[in-house]
Every structure is written in C-alpha cells, then in structure tokens.
Specification:
It contains 17 helices and 19 strands. The protein has helices spanning 2-22, 30-39, 75-86, 115-121, 124-139, 170-186, 222-238, 261-271, 292-302, 313-325, 331-347, 366-379, 407-411, 433-441, 491-500, 518-521, 538-544; strands at residues 42-45, 61-64, 94-97, 145-146, 192-196, 217-218, 244-247, 251-252, 255-256, 277-279, 307-308, 381-385, 396-400, 447-449, 460-466, 505-510, 526-529, 558-559, 579-581. The strands form five sheets. It has a six-stranded mixed sheet, sandwiched between helices. The chain has a five-stranded parallel sheet with strand order 4-3-2-1-11, with helices on one face. A three-stranded parallel sheet has the order 5-7-10. The termini are far apart. Bound molecules: alpha-D-glucopyranose (GLC). Alpha-D-glucopyranose is lined by residues 65-66, 98, 147, 194, 281-282, 472. Alpha-D-glucopyranose binds next to loops.
C-alpha cells in the first residue's frame, strides 16, 4: 500500500515541480512534501474555508456540519460547490456530510425513518436498500463521504442520540449497520462507523458540560465493552469493509477515546485490521488536556488519522508540522495516516477521476419515496389494540395533536438543520400524517378533520403526540413522561381532549425514544410507536387502514419510570420491575 501511493504522490510532486519551475517558484523540498501530507490529515468546515486558501493549505477534506449548505441548495448547487474545491487543488478533496436518515441536509431529499425505527423494522435487506438510496442522493450532490451509520448500542434511552441507534441489542446493531454500510459503499459513498467506542454506554450525569449523558463516561469492564459495544464494529470492518471510523467524544472508565492508543491503534487497527481512516469528531480533541499542539500530539499518536477541525484547520496543520519537527509525532505516523487517507480516496475513485455522480433525478424519486414508505410501515410498533384498528377507510376521523400535520416533528433532529425543524416549512417534499389520511379517506368516502368542534360527528379520534426535534446532547432527558423533557407543549391539551371525547382513541407517538405512557395508556384504545418516521407518512396509514400488517418489534426496552440506567436487556443488573413493554414486543392484526 505504501509504495502504491508513493508513486501517485511522486507524480503529484513532479506536477508541482513543473508548475513551480514554470512559475519560477523554488523547487519543492522535503519539508514541503511533509507539509502537503500533513495538510491531507486535516478537515475544515465549508463555511470557514475557501477554495483560494488551498494553495497554502491543501487540506484533505471539507465537511458540511449539520445544516451547512451552499446558497444554491439545489443538487447542481452542491455539485458546483464541491467541484470548486476539487479544481483548485492537485490532490482531490473528500467531502463529508451527515446524511443519517437520507440526505437530510439537502432541500427536497427523501427523509427516511431515523435508525431507531429501522431497528424496530429489523430488516437487513431494507437497510441495504436504504443505504443504496441514500448513497445515490448524496452522490447526486457530488458529496463523497457520509458520516453514518451510528453503531451505538444505546443502553440508557435518556441520551439525546438514542434515535440514531438501531437498538440496545448489539446483534441488531451489527446486522443493520453492516447492511447499511454495504449498501452505501456499493454506490461509491464512503461510510463511517461511529462513534468509536461505547458512545451509547455513557452513565447518566457524566455528560460533558451541561449535557447529562452526551460525551460522557462509559463505566464498564473490558469484557462488557467488547461483548456489547465493540461487537458491531467487527462485522462493519471485516464483512462490510467500512472505509472510515469516527472517534467518540466520550470516554471509557475516564480515558478519553480520542487519546486512547489502546482502542484506536492496538484494537481497531491492530486486532480488527481496520485499513481505512480514523477521523476525530467535531473539535473533539479540544476536550483533551493541554494546548492544541498537545491535543494534536495526543490524538494523532493515539491513532487519529484526520482531524475534524472546522475552524482551527490552519492552526492544526501548522501545529502538526511543528510536532513532527520536534519529534513529538513521528514521520512514520504521518506516513501511515497519509496512506490511510489516500487509500480511502483511491477506493472512492477520487485519485483516478472515476468517482460516479448519480443523476439528480434520484433525489426523492418515486422509487425512493416507495422505499421510505415501506420503511415507515415496517418501523411501526403496535403496543395496544382493543379492536379499533384497522380503521375503516369510510371512517370519520378527528386528527388532533402536534404530530397531526408537521413533517418537522415527524423527522426529528439532523433534518434540514442540525437540531431539526419544528415545522414542515423546509420539508415541502414530505407527506404529513394529515395528508396521508386525506389521500385515503378522500377516495373512500371517509372524512378527516382537525376541527375539534366536530368531535361529536366523528367515529374515532387519532391522537398524534410528538417530541420536539433535537440532536446530540441537546436531547439528553431527565424526565421521559409525556409532559417531560423535549415533549411538544401541544400534547397535554390534545391528550385531555381525546380523553373527554368519549370516542375510541388511536394514539400515535412520534418520538426519538420510548416515553412513559403508563398513566395515559388506559384511556387509549390503540397505541402505535411511530418513532421519527420522516417524509413519507403514507407508510403509517397503509398500516392503520390494514393494507399492510404491523411487523415492527421494540428495539429498546420501554420503561415505567425515567430511571432508565439499567433497563437494557444487555444489562446484567437489569431492573425488571421498571419495564412497561419488553424489548422485542409488538402486536399485529390477527
Ligand atoms: C457531531 C457529531 C458527529 C457528526 C459530526 C459532524 O458533533 O458528534 O456524529 O458526524 O459532528 O457533523
């Protein structure tokens, strides 16, 4: 592998020499070669880096942070932005983005259910097809690298990133994560297994800064870490050949992952044989002790190959050059990291110009809408039904609650913006729950209304409850009740209205994790967990009207109280008295 890229690099140096001579610049020397390689190990955010700066800082990668998009947010606008970076440098950039449930930064993209719903579906073939569809929509915008899937095996659902996890069960996470990676990379987009390691095991109260769990500390012995949290990485690396791994902000027993040579080099690269590149998380090395120089020395020597430094990319390149000159980072470590970056770029066809850009007609195509609709149907979990479901298509329905007509709440965080949208204004492509009901009732003589004054005229009330959107630590919760952390304020009134209606009530909960429903469940005739289902709500009505049966099963244990630190089936000290619905539970139409 080393010799392979040395020849490519020598060709590029020759090109620089020729251009240098032609432009009467001094010949390229060893220091400049080293500095060019070091620049390949740094990633900047698009808002803080212009193509013109490449001449002095030929960075290896650019990213779009959550919600970061070109002024022209069309597919061609995205492609033009990436091309502008490409044509200004001799070593092609690799452009990364979080497309964690479809190409969610892109206006008009297909928004698939977040991973928690896909864990309920637990369908590897479906997951692979979603990886392919997502990869095509990402490729259509000229982007090369997707920071997905999350392989967290979440154990405490109070964590704000629970919905990015498939399940509390490592086998489900492993199977679905690998299927997604295979799908995504089969259409030429680099996947990212993240966040290495044990991001989903942090203990409540150990979170970083104001966070309760996010970026906190996993307090487990190595056997448990390997059995539950390392497990999904084995298949991701050995079967799906994942090209990149992102390091977790969190720590294990007080040791920050970004400085852990044992886990990043000895285990990930040595024992598991990972050949791709390891990238740090967003300024995550700044949580390490010391100055930026010392943080860079610690993380690079631990095994980080590329620094996600959205703002301090210049300082990072300069500090790394100094560290090599000072002997604090060896040239061999730089060479290894550089070879890994070039390995990924070569696998993507960036070095020989064979990277394939799909036609923008794939974006929110009929095929992708139908795929997302299938995923929504398979993600639903029926937790109670006294016979009110399936609904008759001729039924008169009063639809109430914040989830009734709001694609923003249906999609959750990482949708158009980092923290998600509280309305559907930026999701014109979406079909809302109300629209989905209307499309069925309208052609079957049914009636759908959101006018509560008609409550006495209807056959059934559909109560659409919802969480507000959130991402990462912002979503950390200490109260999982329906009036608790991050629940939409309109839920309470809707719950009361449904209760007083004396009508059959079908409750649909749109949330990024299980919530406490023990109090209210007795007033409901049916209860469906819809998770964060995204842009295709007709996948819900397909099932509610009985055209499709329920198949979803709970990917997480559902608690009776907010003390969810030990409810996972993976927890040897599980508190069985705190379980409302068991992991794996789900009803269907007989
Ligand atoms: C965030 C997340 C990570 C994401 C990265 C880039 O902080 O932790 O999952 O890929 O930054 O947006």
């Amino acid at each position: 592998m080393i010799t392979r890229y040395k020849s490519i690099f020598l060709l590029l140096i020759a090109a620089l020499l020729v251009s240098g001579c032609a432009n009467k610049q001094p010949p390229v020397n060893e220091d400049e070669v080293l500095r060019s390689k070091i620049a390949q190990l740094v990633q900047a955010e698009r808002n803080n880096f212009t193509a013109q700066q490449w001449a002095e800082y030929p960075l290896g990668s650019i990213l779009s942070g959550g919600g970061s998009r070109p002024a022209d947010d069309s597919a061609s606008g995205w492609r033009l932005m990436v091309e502008n970076y490409q044509k200004s440098t001799s070593v092609p950039v690799i452009y990364g983005i979080d497309a964690v449930h479809g190409h969610n930064n892109l206006l008009g993209a297909t928004i698939f259910p977040h991973n928690i719903g896909l864990g309920a579906a637990n369908d590897e073939d479906l997951m692979r097809r979603i990886g392919i569809a997502t990869g095509k929509e990402v490729s259509a915008t000229g982007v090369h690298w997707n920071f997905a899937p999350t392989l967290a095996v979440v154990q405490d659902i109070r964590w704000g990133r629970t919905y990015e996890s498939y399940s509390e069960n490592p086998q489900i996470v492993s199977a679905l994560g690998s299927a997604y990676i295979q799908g995504l990379q089969s259409v030429g987009i680099a996947a990212t297994a993240k966040h290495f390691l044990a991001d989903g095991a942090t203990v409540f109260g150990t979170g970083s800064g104001s966070y309760l769990l996010d970026q906190g500390d996993a307090q487990l012995d190595e056997a448990e870490i390997r059995r539950v949290h390392l497990y999904p990485y084995l298949a991701a690396i050995r079967e799906a050949d994942v090209l990149t791994v992102m390091v977790s902000f969190s720590s294990i027993n007080g040791d920050k992952m970004h400085a852990s040579k044992y886990w990043l080099t000895d285990v990930l690269k040595g024992e598991l044989g990972f050949k791709g590149l390891v990238i740090s998380d967003w300024e995550a090395i700044h949580q390490l002790p010391g100055s930026l120089y010392q943080q860079i020395v610690l993380s690079i020597n631990a095994g980080v190959d590329m620094l996600m430094e959205p703002f301090l990319w210049k300082e990072s390149v300069d500090a790394m050059v100094r560290a090599v000159k000072n002997g604090d980072i060896s040239k061999q470590r730089i060479e290894d990291a550089y070879q890994r970056v070039m390995y990924v770029k070569e696998k993507l066809g960036l070095l020989d110009g064979s990277f394939e850009v799909y036609d923008e007609s794939v974006i929110h195509s009929q095929e992708h809408q139908e795929l997302a609709r299938e995923a929504v149907s398979k993600s639903l979990v029926l937790l109670k039904n006294n016979g009110v479901l399936p609904l008759k298509k001729t039924a008169k329905i009063l639809l109430i609650g914040p989830g009734a007509d709001n694609a923003g709440l249906a999609s959750g965080g990482w949708t158009f913006s980092w923290q998600g949208e509280s309305t559907g204004n930026q999701l014109p492509q979406a079909t809302t729950l109300k629209q989905a009901f209307e499309s069925v009732a309208g052609v079957n003589g049914g009636m759908i209304t959101t006018d509560v004054t008609k409550i006495n005229e209807v056959d059934v009330v559909v109560l659409a409850l919802a969480e507000n959107p959130y991402a990462e630590g912002v979503g950390d919760a200490n109260d999982l009740s329906l009036n608790g952390s991050l629940m939409n304020s309109a839920n309470k009134e809707a719950i009361e209205l449904a209760k007083l209606s004396k009508k059959p009530v079908v409750t649909i909960l749109t949330a990024g994790r299980p919530r406490l429903i023990d109090e209210e469940l007795k007033d409901w005739d049916a209860f469906v967990m819809a998770w964060l289902y995204g842009s295709e709500a007709n996948g819900i009505t397909d099932v509610l009207y009985g055209d499709v049966n329920f198949t979803g099963k709970l990917p997480f244990s559902c608690p009776k109280t907010s003390e969810t630190g030990n409810i996972s089936t993976e927890n040897p000290n599980r508190d069985d008295s705190n379980i409302q619905f068991e992991f794996g539970f789900g009803l269907k139409y007989e």
